[in-house]
Every structure is written in structure tokens, then in C-alpha cells.
Amino acid sequence: MESVSVATLKSNLSRYLAVVKKGKELIITSHRHPVARLSPLKKTAGDLKIIPAQKPVSTLKKVKGIKLSFDPVEFLLEDRRRR
């Protein structure tokens, strides 16, 4: 596994991304200490599955919101006045 410093990675990002796209992992270092691992994604957009909705969109109108016992805008303004 190849190591690369943050500074080098920043200046050659496209090159290192191409390396990762080919399946290689990189260890990112800061002041010679490993801080992160850059690895290729396991799934691609082609692997995603679209699940069709089970109910029509019109049923969303029936969803009830949370009833608040206070006015959130007034609460925010009051909090700002106190600060």
C-alpha cells in the first residue's frame, strides 16, 4: 500500500484519484503519521437499485406534522434578545 503526504496529495490529486480508481489503496499521512486511507468504492451507480413507491404521492398530504405548543419564531427571537 502506497503512502502519500497531504501536501503531495493536494498538488497531484487527479493522479492519485486515477490510481485509486484502478483499485489501489493509499495511506494519507500528515507529518509522517498515517491519518486516513483512500480506497476505491465497492459499489458503483450501476449497482444501485431503484425501489418503486408502494403508495401514491397523494398520500403524503395526509401526514400530520408535529403540533408545537409554542411559536418557534418567537422562541428564536426571544433567545437572540437574551444574548
List the helices and strands and how they pair.
Blueprint lengths: L1 E4 H6 L1 H9 L4 E5 L2 E6 L33 H11 L1
Parallel strand pairs: 1-2
Antiparallel strand pairs: 2-3
Provide a descriptive summary of the structure in words:
- The chain has 83 residues and is of the alpha+beta class.
- The protein has a domain at 2-38: 3-Layer(aba) Sandwich (YefM-like fold).
- 31% of the residues lie in helices and 18% in strands.
- It has three helices and three strands; from the N terminus they run βααββα.
- A three-stranded mixed sheet has the order 1-2-3.
- A hairpin with a 2-residue loop joins β2 and β3 (33-38).
- The longest helix is centred in the last third of the chain and has 11 residues, at 72-82.
Report the structural category.
alpha+beta
The whole-angstrom Rg is 25 Å
- The helix content is 25-40%
CATH class of the domain at 2-38: Alpha Beta
List the secondary-structure elements in sequence, H or E.
EHHEEH
**Distance between the terminal alpha carbons, to the nearest Å?**
52 Å
Unreliable stretches covering 5 or more consecutive residues = none
Q: What kind of sheet is the major sheet? A: 3 strands, mixed
Helical stretch tally: 3
Shape: flat
Oligomer: single chain
The CATH architecture of the domain at 2-38 can be named as 3-Layer(aba) Sandwich
Order of strands side by side in the largest beta sheet? Answer: 1-2-3
CATH topology value of the domain at 2-38? YefM-like fold
